[in-house]
TrEMBL record, chains A, B:
Residues 6-59 form the HTH lacI-type domain. This is LacI family transcriptional regulator. The keyword Transcription regulation applies. Signal peptide: none annotated. One of its GO terms (molecular function) is transcription cis-regulatory region binding. It comes from the Bacteria. The lineage of its organism: Bacteria, Bacillati, Actinomycetota, Actinomycetes, Micrococcales. Keywords: DNA-binding, Transcription, Transcription regulation. Gene3D superfamilies: 3.40.50.2300, lambda repressor-like DNA-binding domains.
Length: 338, 338
């Protein structure tokens, strides 16, 4: 026998409260006693209650939520623009939340989102725990994750870019220039995209038959300070690398500084590849060779997916990965003569 | 006899519609015939109807609007962070709108804002026309302008920084280093803040008794391309400047490129001062001497002012200007020997 699709009335009956009380909890209203609220949430989750998602996209005052783990970089700006360029013309307001460096929103944030009743949520480098996912699902609020930082739970829609390919093409470029001792200052070890880039770096070595030296591979945090610190450590090694793949453009800036302080010229003494192709990198001194991620397109695609889900449509694919490309500028050159 | 304070009932009677119809127009609902709506708007404006502004700041689902003329730069990111850091802890959602480079929102945007009923609006380098101002006022939606780009209408609250002082201290620093031929690539001529910076530059010359040469003063647009183009033109003059005040950090990047292409070293052959102290400038090559505007504080203060106004409070001052400071780094040095 097929399970009956749960209704608000069924939930109310089981908890022993009125239908309006269940509605209040679903709409994030604060005028429900915490104990009652917890019981309602528990029964909603047990029955996997789902509010119908198909809504009119034409009513006014509509919102979409954009959640960014940290709005500290130009990188975040590109993603914000990508969401704005889709939401703006559709007259959908974009509510921006910054998690202050955390990768998971606090429960109050979820409560506020439920009260705002947005069409959906775009998460950037951030994710929900199981309970938070269930809460959004029961309210019929769809979401899409851009550039996943961890394992992707079943059924969650994601938009990413091919980070493995990015690491591969950056490293192949350096190998083609004759470099054989290529250091890497990667992003954080606990973020999937930085691990994928390092694996691409490894594969490029494998296919060229070059032995990897773990002594010249380091994990950073995407910031200039990390590039400065780890880049400096690599350049102080007795047998220093002739090229460094910096894992992010901001880290590359730190490596430039470390090289300068040691009297090393770029690209004559050290070749350097960044990652992200931030708008400013073509104006750097020297202009930076880097890997382009289509950040605006990724965010725009995630926004369109959320709007499709909000209209009750089923997107053709659950996980989409956009391509990465190498942009060759002035920071890479032939390996220096020994 | 004092004029009677207009009520919704009075407005409805005068237009010849029902009270709910006037309410719908006030709340940005779209289910009112355009002709009726126009008549209601006209009578609301004529009577200067004002919805009471004092609202609870404690109900959930509350929003504040942030309007940025162009989210193209790191500069915008700093302002967004300033708003987030005040709104986030207060659990107020920030709706971000980008005007795509325009300095005035379209009417549809105003309609959507009225439907969203935010606590208030923070405008950055953007402003409203008289009709739009009246529409927000009649809905009891207060607003504050950050870094005004034009003349400030009476009664509009603003938060800025002391741009005149910024131009003054940047130029004084160069004069103290012995420079007498100091070029300027300013921001756009039609934006008040860039004119104030140029006036500070002039005053520093006046107080040092140095004659200004209009041939080495140019208006740009705050972007790297403008710094490259106008900086290059200044450096190609028969009697080129020994220092350039670049009006923005992004323009300074363009001047660096122009100098490099002409074989000029910074600061040995050319001293350079930027404006904004973007986070990336300390990592540039050379690190940039620049003027700090407290962008995050300005945006945070504007947000607090909006929240005060939303609670019916009267802020102690209508126009607030925060201080600017010089940050001396590696791009400025003594005037080269003739």
């Amino acid at each position: 026998m097929a399970a009956e699709r749960p209704t608000i009335a069924m939930i109310a009956r089981e908890v022993g409260v009125s239908v309006p009380t269940v509605s209040k909890v679903l709409n994030g209203r604060t005028d429900v006693a915490p104990a009652t609220r917890a019981r309602v949430e528990e029964v909603l989750a047990r029955h996997q209650y789902r509010k119908p998602t198909a809504r009119s996209l034409t009513r006014s005052g509509r919102l979409i939520e954009l959640v960014i783990h940290e709005a500290d970089t130009i990188w975040a700006m590109e993603l914000i623009k990508g969401v704005e360029r889709v939401a703006g013309p559709a007259r959908i307001g974009v509510v921006l939340s910054e998690l202050g460096g955390s990768h998971r929103p606090r429960q109050e944030w979820i409560d506020d989102v439920m009260a705002r009743r947005p069409l959906g949520v775009v998460f950037v480098l951030s994710e929900l725990d199981g309970r938070q996912r269930e809460q959004l699902a029961s309210r019929g609020i769809p979401y899409v994750v851009v550039d996943t930082q961890g394992e992707i739970p079943r059924g969650v829609h994601t938009v990413g870019s091919n980070n493995w390919n990015g690491g591969l093409i950056a490293t192949r470029h350096l190998i083609a220039l004759g470099h054989r001792r290529i250091g890497v200052v990667a992003g954080p070890r606990d973020i999937l995209c930085s691990r994928a880039r390092v694996d691409g770096y490894r594969s490029a070595h494998d296919e060229a038959g070059i032995q990897l030296d773990p002594a010249i591979a380091r994990w950073g945090n995407f910031r200039s300070e990390a590039g400065y610190e780890h880049g400096g450590a690599l350049l102080d090694l007795p047998e220093r690398p002739t090229a460094i793949f910096a894992g992010s453009d901001l880290q590359a800036l730190g490596v430039v500084r470390a090289a300068q302080e040691r009297g090393l010229r770029i690209p004559e003494d050290l070749s350097l590849v960044g990652y992200d192709n931030l708008p400013i990198t073509e104006w750097l001194n020297p202009p930076l060779t880097t890997v382009t991620q289509p950040l605006q397109e990724m965010a725009g695609l995630a926004t369109r997916l959320v709007l499709e889900l909000a209209q009750g449509e089923t997107p053709s694919s659950t996980h989409v990965e956009l391509g990465t490309e190498l942009v060759v500028r002035g920071s890479t050159g032939p390996v220096p003569a020994a």
